[in-house]
Amino acid sequence: MIDSIFKFEPAVKLNQLDTEDFESIFANVFLSPGDTVTVGSGTVYRPPGGNISQCNDSLDAVLSAVKCSRNKIFLAGDFNSNVLNHDSHCETDAFLNLMYQQMFPCYYLSCKIFIQRIHID
């Protein structure tokens, strides 16, 4: 969500919402009124069980386009991937390599939700 004090426009060429393995939505945010300089803001999502190789290919294309724009960008996402097993899972290793090659070092906040059922007799 972009605060209402900022003017923004969708970055249509980067938005991909029609695939099963990868979704992205981006916007260009103008930092001050009348300014032509923008900062990109993007979110990427890979659904659980989505094809990691297809996601990596789509992500590579989007990140290449982002790099060509030469704008600063804030990127967040839920890749549904356990990056801790990169040494034993080649697609996860390829994902990390892709992020570093595209100059997006990864900072991870890993969350797991456990649901405990309580039975009351």
List the total number of helices.
Answer: 2
Instruction: Let me know the largest β-sheet.
Output: 4 strands, mixed
Q: Which secondary-structure class do the elements indicate?
A: alpha+beta
Roughly what fraction of the amino acids lie in strands?
15-25%
Secondary structure tally: strands: 4
**SSE ordering:** EEEHEH
Number of domains: 1
Average predicted local confidence, pLDDT: 79
Outline, from the CA principal axes?
elongated
Percentage of residues assigned to helices: 10-25%
Report, as a whole number of angstroms, the end-to-end distance. 45 Å
Question: In order across it, which strands form the biggest sheet?
Answer: 1-2-3-4
**Gyration radius from CA atoms, angstroms:** 17 Å
Q: Which spans of ≥5 residues are poorly predicted at pLDDT below 50? A: none
